[in-house]
Design brief:
The complex is a heterodimer of chains A (372) and B (68). By secondary structure, chain A is an alpha+beta fold. Chain A has two domains: 4-81 and 243-335, Gyrase A, domain 2 (2-Layer Sandwich), CATH 3.30.1360.10; 84-238, RNA Polymerase Alpha Subunit, Chain A, domain 2 (Beta Complex). Chain A is 27% helix and 29% strand. Chain A has twelve helices and 18 strands. In chain A, the strands form six sheets. In chain A, strands 1, 2, 3, 4, 15 and 18 form a six-stranded antiparallel sheet that branches. Chain A has a four-stranded antiparallel sheet with strand order 5-14-7-11. In chain A, strands 6-12 form a two-stranded antiparallel ribbon. Helix content of chain B is 0%, strand content 26%. A three-stranded antiparallel sheet of chain B has the order 2-1-3, with no helix packed on it. Classes of the chains: A alpha+beta (372), B mainly beta (68).
């Protein structure tokens, strides 16, 4: 039986000035003689841990501790590419005399994040575009297409022309509707959508997105079909701005770092990672202690490795590099999930867990069918 | 990228009437921005300011794009 210290040591990825060592995990069967590392649900339940660091509506950060990189990465990839949202897909430009070209304008419209009732979104069906196998594709229906309209025309304000002649250049004082914002997009519920999206209609998650600028006489009139889709198809469907993880950094001070070196050491890291503490009388007088004779001076202590960016700056200084060992904990994943507005961040992660579960069940069924 | 949608009606959208000789086309004056409608054979000239540069208006035909 191996001790906990050895198991903890195996979890650390070594970070040196130019190399990264001990990258792969070794906790699987057959790797260590006499040790059984086969996956065990009870062991996982006992060791797995989730810790929240911040949980705002659209931005959350949490740690998953004690799982394999493959699973953590599966969650990240599902968050980015497989949790569905609605986005504008087809656009019918009836009029566009703005400075921005139809193609560019339509591309911009597609990238605007939309939100609507979650139950409504779950109810919505996929819209299948026509392809070689199915040239027809789905038909447009109330259950797979949300219709949005954008109709806006810029005009002079009352007396605006006069003010322009007198040298006024501020567009806010001259024109009406000279800025087209995402809030100007109007949802037109059809059929069942009227009841399903009654409380939480489809709308831009961020109403202040500037779409185009207009000048008097210019107008935009278009009809847009928003559809449910996933990020694997196009990034506009991705429900997250970023979903990423990093491994928890470790900093081990091997030999005491004292006095001016300690200050320099602290400056090698972001604020709050390394703290300075005075060396106590007891430490300074103990026989054989490395602090002997340094009573009252400052020593460097590790305060919060979570804030470290692992810049390895401390390894560039000759007086510091042999006194410290940098690393990362291989099974401690610090996730950061930023939502675009359709889902709340913590909910998004649960959604990814749900999707992974569905995939696993599908795999299980397929294997069972194979064995039959 | 974009699918071209053929016009639904045969009449060009900028023409106000489509009866052969009498049809007129709307333009925009390059100087005073006034709407000018011209028939065939008329001098190319703005009625309000006399400017000789006229711009054709954008078609009213619907164009379909994919937001990608």
């Amino acid at each position: 039986m191996v001790g906990q210290a050895e198991l903890d040591r195996r979890k650390i990825v070594g970070i040196n000035a130019e190399t990264v060592t001990n990258v792969t995990s070794t906790d699987f069967p057959g790797q260590w003689p006499g040790e059984d590392h086969s996956w065990d649900l009870d062991f996982f339940k006992r060791t797995f841990n989730v810790k929240f660091h911040s949980n705002d509506q659209f931005d959350s950060s949490f740690s998953l501790i004690g799982l394999d990189a493959s699973v953590a990465n599966a969650f990240r990839r599902i968050l980015i590419a497989e949790v569905p949202t609605v986005a504008i897909e087809d656009i019918f430009v009836i009029h566009n005399t703005s400075i921005i070209q139809d193609e560019v304008l339509c591309h911009r419209m597609g990238l605007i994040p939309f939100r609507g009732s979650r139950e409504g979104l779950r109810w919505m069906h996929w819209f299948q575009k026509g392809n070689d196998e199915d040239p027809e594709g789905s038909t447009h229906n109330d259950y797979n297409v949300c219709i949005l309209n954008l109709q806006i025309e810029c005009a002079w304000q009352a007396g605006g022309q006069m003010r322009a002649v007198n040298g006024e250049t501020d567009p806010n004082k001259l024109y009406n509707n000279h800025n087209v914002y995402a809030r100007d997009i109007i949802y037109e519920p059809t059929g069942q959508q009227i009841t399903r999206f009654a409380d939480d209609p489809v709308r831009a998650a961020n109403p202040d997105i500037l779409i185009a600028k207009l000048r008097p006489g210019q107008k935009i009139n278009m009809r847009m079909y928003a559809m449910k889709g996933i990020g694997a198809d196009h990034a506009k469907f991705s429900p997250v701005a970023t979903a990423s993880y990093r491994l928890l950094p470790t900093i081990d001070i091997l030999k005491p770092i004292i006095g001016p070196d300690a200050e320099k050491f602290a400056r090698c890291f972001p604020k709050g990672v390394i703290g300075l503490e005075p060396i106590t009388r007891e430490e300074g007088q103990r026989e054989g202690s490395e602090y002997k004779g340094h009573e009252g001076e400052m020593k460097a202590v590790v305060e919060d490795t979570m804030r470290d960016t692992v810049s390895r700056e401390c390894l560039r200084h000759a007086e510091l590099k042999d006194k410290v060992k940098l690393g990362r904990v291989r099974d401690h994943f610090i996730f950061k999930v930023e939502s675009t507005g359709q889902w709340e961040s913590d909910e998004l992660f649960l959604e990814s867990v749900k999707l992974l579960k569905i995939k696993a069940q599908r795999m299980k069924r397929a294997l069972a069918a194979l064995m039959r | 990228m974009s699918g071209y949608v053929p016009p639904t009606s045969t009449a060009a959208a900028t023409t106000t009437t489509s009866t052969g000789e009498g049809r007129s086309v709307d333009y925009t004056c390059g100087d005073c921005n006034a709407a000018v409608s011209l028939k065939r054979g008329e001098p190319i000239r703005c009625r309000s300011c006399g400017h000789r540069v006229l711009y054709k208006q954008r078609t009213n035909r619907m164009v379909q794009f994919e937001a990608r």
